[in-house]
Write a structure and sequence with these properties.
single chain; alpha/beta; 5-stranded parallel beta sheet; 6 helices; 5 strands; globular
Length: 170
C-alpha cells in the first residue's frame, strides 16, 4: 500500500531544501521529535516545533523551497492544518505523513506519505500507528543517508564524538 515514489519525492525535496520543519500535535509529536533528531544527526537543518502558536508563526516565515513536514494520523488536526496552510502560503514544499488519504491536511500536501496500521479497538495511544509512522521516518532518514553517504558519515561521526564527550568514565 505504501507509495515508494512519494518517499523518493520527499527525500529529493528534503535534500534540496535549506530548512526542514516538523509539525505535529498530540501523540504525533513524539514522531516529529524523532524525525528532527534523525535528520539533525545527518547534518540537515531540521527543527521540530511543538508549540502550536510557534508552529504557525514558524511556518509563515519559511523561505520558499523549505520543507514543512506535518505528521497527523487522521489528517485533521486543526493546529497542524494551520501550520501547513501557512507553510504552503510561504512557498514551502509541504509533506504529510498520515494514515488516511483525502483529508483536509492531504489537500495542502505536495507529497503525501500514507501508511496504515491496524489498531485495536481500545487503543489508548495508537501504538501500531506510531510504530508505522516511525518506520517511515526511519526509511526516510536511511534513504537520505544513502543519497549523501560522505556527508552523512561525517555528520554521524561528529555526533558520536559529541555524545562520547558527554559520557561519564567507565
Amino acid at each position: 500500500m505504501f507509495d515508494y515514489s512519494a518517499l523518493d519525492a520527499a527525500v529529493e525535496a528534503i535534500l534540496a531544501s535549506s530548512r526542514i520543519e516538523f509539525y505535529a500535535v498530540g501523540p504525533s509529536v513524539g514522531v516529529a521529535l524523532d524525525a528532527h533528531y534523525r535528520l539533525l544527526r545527518l547534518g540537515l537543518p531540521a527543527t521540530a516545533t511543538t508549540d502550536v502558536h510557534l508552529q504557525a508563526t514558524s511556518a509563515a516565515n519559511l523561505p520558499p523551497g523549505a520543507v514543512a513536514l506535518a505528521i497527523s494520523h487522521y489528517g485533521r488536526a486543526f493546529e497542524t492544518h494551520s501550520a501547513l496552510r501557512w507553510a504552503k502560503q510561504a512557498g514551502a514544499t509541504c509533506i504529510l505523513l498520515t494514515s488516511y488519504r483525502d483529508t483536509p491536511l492531504s489537500r495542502l500536501a505536495d507529497i503525501e506519505l500514507v501508511v496504515a496500521a491496524p489498531e485495536a479497538a481500545a487503543r489508548p495511544e495508537g501504538v501500531a500507528t506510531r510504530i508505522a509512522h516511525l518506520a517511515v521516518i526511519d526509511a526516510l532518514s536511511v534513504a537520505i543517508a544513502l543519497r549523501r553517504p560522505q556527508a552523512a558519515s561525517a555528520a554521524l561521526l561528529r555526533d558520536y564524538e559529541i555524545i562520547g564527550e558527554r559520557e561519564v568514565g567507565k
